[in-house]
Amino acid sequence: MITEGEKSSLFPAPRNRRETLSSQVVRTIAERIKLDRYPRGSKLPTEKELIEDLGVSRTVIREAIANLRASGHVSIHHGIGVFVRQDAGVAPFRLGDESLMVVENVLKGLELRIGIESEAAALAAERRTPADIEAMIAACEAMDLAAREVRRDTQDDFRFHCAVAAASQNEHFYGIFNYLGETLMPRMRLQAHQVSDATFSAHLARVNQEHRAILSAIEAGDAEGARAAMRKHLSDSRDRHIERVRHAP
Questions:
Q1: Cβ distance 94 to 80 under 8 Å?
Q2: Nearest-angstrom CA–CA distance, 160 and 229
Q3: What string of pLDDT tens digits covers the 249 residues of the chain?
Q4: Which residues lie closer than 8 Å to 183 by C-beta, 6 or more apart?
Q5: Cβ of 229: how many Cβ atoms within 10 Å?
Q6: Burial 20-52 (b: 16+ CB within 10 A, else e)
Q7: How far apart are CA 158 and CA 75, in angstroms?
Q8: Is-contact 207 187, C-beta < 8 A?
Q9: Which DSSP helix (H) or strand (E) runs through 206?
Q10: Beta strand ranges found along 30-98 (DSSP E)
Q11: Of 240, 214, 212, which Cα lies nearest the Cα of 227?
C-alpha cells in the first residue's frame, strides 16, 4: 500500500499539462523498481492491487504497464503476471514512444516488424503445436469481442502476435517481440477519443480478419502463405497509418 509519505507526493502536479495519469503511474512504478521496492525478477502486484494502491482506473494501470513493458522495465507472462525485468533500468536498444510519435519513425518501426514477424510466421507454420494454435484462436476470439465492445486497447492484438512469435519455437523471436512490445503497435495512433466507436470497431474487425488469414496459413502448415499473410497484414497497417496521418486535422 501507499505509505503516508507517498500520499501527498505520489502524483504531484504535472511538470507540464500534457502529462497523463498513466505517465505518472509509470514514473511511480519505475521509481519503486529503482529503489528495489519491486526487486528485479519479482512479480509486480496484481492489477487489482495496483488500482487500490495507486487510486487510478484499470485503463490507466493497463496503459502504464504497456508503457513499462515497451521501455524494458517489465515483461508480461500471460496467465501468470507482470514481472520486473532483470535488466530493468538498463538502457539497451529500444524504440520509445517519444521517438515513434514522429511519423517517419512509426513507419520504420512497422518495417522492422515486417522483417521480424514475417519470418516468425513462416517458422510458426512449420513448427506450431496444438497449444500454439489454441493460443492464436483465443486471441482472435478475444479481439472479436473487443471489436463488439469497442475496447480501445491493443492487448488482444498484442496477444495474437506474441502467440505467433512463440509458435516459431525460437525464443529469440518471442523475446524480441515481447521486448519491443506495444510501442510498435500503431494503436490507430490517433487518440481513442478522436475516432467514433463505429470507426474503431470496424478497424479492429478488419485487423482481426487479417489475423485469421495468418492463423489459417499457420494452421495449414503453409510457411509461404503465413509469411505472405503476415507481410500483407503489417504492410496494410503501415498504409493505414500513412492514410490516417494524411487526413489528420
A1: no
A2: 14
A3: 444 444 444 555 444 444 688 899 999 999 999 898 999 889 999 999 999 999 999 999 999 998 898 788 899 888 889 999 887 765 554 555 444 445 566 677 788 889 999 999 999 999 999 999 999 999 999 999 988 888 776 778 888 999 999 999 998 898 888 766 655 665 444 444 466 778 888 888 999 999 999 999 999 999 999 999 999 999 998 888 777 767 665
A4: 70, 94, 95, 96, 97, 100, 109
A5: 24
A6: ebbbbbbebbbeebeeeebeeeeebbeeeebee
A7: 13
A8: no
A9: helix 197-219
A10: 74-77, 81-84
A11: 214
What lies within 8 Å, CB to CB, of 89 at 6+ separation is 30, 33, 34, 73
Strand partners, 76: 82
With beta carbons less than 8 A apart as the criterion, state whether 34 and 89 touch: yes
Q: How far apart are CA 245 and CA 241, in angstroms?
A: 6
What lies within 8 Å, CB to CB, of 37 at 6+ separation is none
- How crowded is residue 227: how many other Cβ atoms within 10 Å of its Cβ? 21
The C-alpha atoms of residue 10 and residue 16 are separated, in whole angstroms, by 16
C-alpha cell of residue 127: 513448427
Contacts of 97 (CB under 8 A, 6+ apart): 67, 70, 183
Sequence-separated (6 or more) residues with CB below 8 Å from residue 57:
51
- Give Cα 91 distance to the centre of its chain: 19
Residue whose C-alpha is closest to residue 164's, from 140, 189, 188: 140
